């Protein structure tokens, strides 16, 4: 992997995080290819960018108000071919609450993404979000 490729992919990840934290779905969605897949931590499989956008727009305002606490703790980038990269991002979301009445919990997970080089630069072709299990005794 060239340093330029790694920097370009890292820039997409930085923009991903910035847009997500601001709940800016419009600019966040530009990071995905038109035919992108997104599998949510709940197991929903959105097979196009439009489905991904619609699904994330449906997130409640309450959850959106917490997105500023979401972060990437580390990212690993591996070039699989000159135009394909595999990215694993460990994420955390401290004090997340599913609903107003819920007890806050510190959530963690792994985001696995396949990046492809397009005419517009590196874009996300596929993404799967997996939550790490909550430790025994820590369930709300």
Tell me about this structure.
It is built from four helices and six strands; from the N terminus they run H-H-E-E-H-H-E-E-E-E. It has helices spanning 3-21, 25-29, 49-57, 61-64, and strands spanning 32-39, 45-46, 71-81, 84-96, 105-118, 121-131. The longest helix has 19 residues, at 3-21. 26% of the residues lie in helices and 42% in strands. Strands 2-1-6-5-4-3 form a six-stranded mixed beta sheet. It is globular and about 50 Å long. With 140 residues, the chain is an alpha+beta fold.
How do you describe this structure in short?
The protein has 140 residues and is α+β, with helices and mostly antiparallel strands.
């Amino acid at each position: 992997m060239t340093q330029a490729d790694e920097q370009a992919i890292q820039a997409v990840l930085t923009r991903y995080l910035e847009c997500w934290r601001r709940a800016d779905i419009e600019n966040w969605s530009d990071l995905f290819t038109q035919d992108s897949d997104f599998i949510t931590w709940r197991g929903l499989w959105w097979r196009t960018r439009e489905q991904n956008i619609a699904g994330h727009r449906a997130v409640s305002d309450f959850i959106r108000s917490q997105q500023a606490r979401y972060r990437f703790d580390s990212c690993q980038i591996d070039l699989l071919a000159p135009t394909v990269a595999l990215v694993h991002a460990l994420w955390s979301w401290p004090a997340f609450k599913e609903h107003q009445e819920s007890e806050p919990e510190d959530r963690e997970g792994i985001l696995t993404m396949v990046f492809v080089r397009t005419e517009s630069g590196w874009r996300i072709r596929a993404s799967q979000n997996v939550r790490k299990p909550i430790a025994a005794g820590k369930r709300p």
